[in-house]
Amino acid sequence: MNKTIKTVAIDGRMWGAGFTGIGNYVREISQRLFLLEPNKTFVLFVSSQQAKIISVPANVKIVIADEPIYSIAEQTSFRKKLLQEKGDMTWFPHFNVPLFFNRPFVATIHDLTIITYPGKKMSRFWHKIAYSLVLRHALKKAKKIITVSQYTKKEVLAYQKMNPEHIFSIWNGVDQGRYSNPSMEKIQHFRKEFSLPFFLITGVWREHKNIPNAIRAFDLYRKHGGKGSLVITGRPDPFYPEVRDLAESSDFSRDIHLTGFLPEDDMPSLFSAADVLLFPSLAEGFGLPAVEAMAAGTPVITSNRSCLPEICSNAALYFDPFQPEDIALKMIDALEEKIISKIVPEGKKRSKIFSWDTAAKKTAGALFSSS
Description:
With 371 residues, this protein is an alpha/beta fold. The protein has helices at residues 20-36, 48-53, 72-75, 77-85, 113-116, 125-141, 150-159, 176-180, 184-193, 211-223, 241-249, 267-273, 288-296, 308-312, 324-333, 337-351, 356-368, and strands spanning 7-11, 41-46, 60-64, 89-92, 105-109, 144-147, 167-169, 198-201, 229-233, 256-260, 276-279, 300-303, 317-319.
């Protein structure tokens, strides 16, 4: 360990469930880092609202940073706050490092979907230029880069020439306790609310999530004689009206449920209640919902693209995400007892290798190691 690093600053502005997967990642890793390194001083930058609910040990100083992510203020006043604290090392749990930040830092790259699937938000050419500048700055200037899968590491190396030894591939974790002991009352509620069997899709409505093809697949599944419903969580996004349009125009629209955003506390029970997790994504850095479903004992059918074969291994059924017919066939297969009896035990076993404690220890290694 490099003993010259005594103070670590952390950009915690995405802390918590409000920022979906990355927010949980920031929280889970940071909380463990504080305890793993009690002799280090941490400076945690969070919003004024986050500061009201976050509890930290004595070795953590909280600094209010209300500058939004991807904003001009992030490049100016937030950068100034970072420099004022003079951290020996700064950890950015996302790629959005201020362009003129010139102190030592480590950055986590979760995926490159901002480049490969930029989507409809921030889609003007200057947005793309800005994202590219910020990402390349992070990759060029970081002392170390953390990726959340080997797949993302390979993507990063293809995008930016750099020393592979400076990239730490560290899988995310899953809270086994939460997903192994869900609320039976909530499970019963979800099982009564939706016609059975029900297929679950979770996450944001973005291009790379491929929800329209999943809806098309559900139509084909029902036309082949399949029963039940499709449940899609996530805040409705006006930039992606095709999700709602396809759901409402479906011949089986009564059995397609757009639930909106659900509280984080409901998710373990929802995963356990679902008959199958349907994960049709075209690109993922890690694919945490698949691991959460496996921990909950729910069969997973997923895309054969990006990191998903790396993460799920032999504990899932795979389909071509561009082919609704293939997705529909796997939906039918996933309900067969011989399939369930194989992939559910494999999934539970597989999920146990994804540990936040291990991820935090390896992250500490990236932050404090020499070179």
